[in-house]
């Protein structure tokens, strides 16, 4: 017994509808890629400008680094550059954790200490941008925090996963510490339910 399947050709109307939806999907893809390219380019240009500012300020410590910032980078308060050499992680740190700040740089959490001889310095960044490499962080990894006031080197002591409501990781400390926070899991699609926290202690300050 032979079974024959007859395929009815699409009508002109159906063909036009499919063509329309293909066009819509193509337009959405183009817009998405354009937005992604814009955000990525803006981030890259800011990072290059921030690096130049820090280099200039280290050469002339008495200067005003904010005044030297390139026009497209004016606005954010540049605090320094954070580097984890083993992870090839290096990015500028700005004051604040609003969406615009985190789209350009690592953000220093307001109300926490600044790099120095005492206090808990807390910073945050997105898990799919600057802090993506933290998924491979290890105990005893070194973290450098270069600022216009000095260079501070920290050593990782612990990593843990906490709920977003757990603000104990931001509590003040009499000892010089660095706390790095990002969303978790790293491969989660959408708004991640947890936070990944890295805590480190200062072991080599060098003030300018």
Query: Structural class, please?
Result: alpha+beta
What is the helix content?
A: 25-40%
CATH superfamily of the domain at 75-207: Sortase
Instruction: Tell me the distance between the termini.
Output: 90 Å
CATH architecture name of the domain at 75-207 = Beta Barrel
Secondary-structure element pattern, one letter each: HEEHEEEEEE
Give the rounded overall mean pLDDT: 82
Figure out the total of helices: 2
Instruction: Note the beta-strand portion.
Output: 25-35%
Largest beta sheet, briefly?
A: 8 strands, mixed, barrel
Unreliable sequence segments = 60-75
Number of extended strands? 8
The radius of gyration computed from the alpha-carbon positions, rounded to a whole number of angstroms, is 24 Å
The CATH topology of the domain at 75-207 is what? Sortase, Chain: A
Looking across the biggest beta sheet, what order are the strands in?
A: 1-2-3-4-7-8-6-5
């Amino acid at each position: 017994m032979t079974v024959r399947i007859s395929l009815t050709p699409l009508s002109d109307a159906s063909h036009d509808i499919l063509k329309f939806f293909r066009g819509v999907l193509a337009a959405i893809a183009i817009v998405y890629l354009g937005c992604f390219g814009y955000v990525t380019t803006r981030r890259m240009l800011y990072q290059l400008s921030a690096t130049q500012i820090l280099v200039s300020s280290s050469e002339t410590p008495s200067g005003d680094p904010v005044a030297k910032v390139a026009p497209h980078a004016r606005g954010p308060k540049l605090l320094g550059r954070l580097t984890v050499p083993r992870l090839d992680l290096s990015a500028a740190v700005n004051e604040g954790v609003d969406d615009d700040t985190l789209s350009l740089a690592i953000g220093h959490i307001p109300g926490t200490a600044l790099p120095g001889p005492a206090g808990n310095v807390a910073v945050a960044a997105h898990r799919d941008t600057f802090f993506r490499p933290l998924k491979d962080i290890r105990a005893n990894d070194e973290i450098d925090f270069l600022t216009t006031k000095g260079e501070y080197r920290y050593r990782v002591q612990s990593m843990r996963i906490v709920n977003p409501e757990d603000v104990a990781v931001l509590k003040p400390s009499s000892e010089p510490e660095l706390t790095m926070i990002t969303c978790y899991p790293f491969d989660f699609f959408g708004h991640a339910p947890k936070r990944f926290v890295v805590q480190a202690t200062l072991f080599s300050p060098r003030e300018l």
